[in-house]
Design a protein that fits this description.
Number of strands: 5
Number of helices: 4
Order of helices and strands: HHEEHHEEE
Distance between the termini: 42 Å
Largest sheet: 5 strands, antiparallel
Radius of gyration: 21 Å
Shape: globular
């Protein structure tokens, strides 16, 4: 029994090290491509995925974040946002980095399946008044980062778009 337990722990560690090592390689080979697709569900589920598009081949040219507008049944509203790294201390950034990754991926249309659960989560967090939450609107804010002739970059004016509206059901607030 002890040998089996030790074998399983070692197998998990080897798999985990191989998965992270292969995933973090910024190059695609005939071996890494299929393996990345195999381990993708595990890495995304565990939050251990990493994206190299911040550095190359073409760095992101947009500064974006997600906020929510929480509408209450009495007509009042409240703005709510995920933690934003530029507004946190170094210690808080370290602790809440996963929120940045989550919010960054949440706004992508390819991840629309996450939107209802995110809206329910936000509704539960903001259901602390005598009047319940009626609706949650997810809002995408973005500003293009525009290269200047002198080689510097200047942010463009910020745009906003409500990309998801969720009508809160009574059972969502429990």
């Amino acid at each position: 029994m002890r040998a089996r337990k030790r074998f399983l722990i070692n197998a998990f560690l080897l798999f985990h090290i191989a998965a992270i090592s292969c995933w973090c390689l910024p190059i695609a080979t005939s071996l890494t491509g299929p393996f990345k697709e195999l381990v993708r569900p595990y890495l995304v589920w565990s939050g251990l995925f990493q994206s190299w598009d911040m550095f190359s081949p073409s760095p992101r040219n947009v500064n974006s974040h997600v906020e929510a507008i929480v509408l209450y049944k009495d007509g009042n509203t409240r703005n709510w946002s995920f933690p934003r790294m530029e507004r946190l201390s170094l210690t808080e950034r370290y602790i809440k980095e996963r929120y940045r990754k989550f919010a960054e991926n949440l706004q992508a249309d390819i991840n629309a399946a996450l939107w209802p659960d995110a809206a329910k989560f936000i509704a539960r967090l903001n259901n602390n008044r005598s009047v319940p939450v009626r609706m949650v609107l997810l809002v995408r804010y973005w500003s293009a980062i525009v290269p200047q002739p002198d080689g510097t970059y200047q942010p463009a004016p910020e745009d906003a778009h409500v990309y998801y509206a969720y009508e809160v059901q009574p059972g969502d607030l429990n």
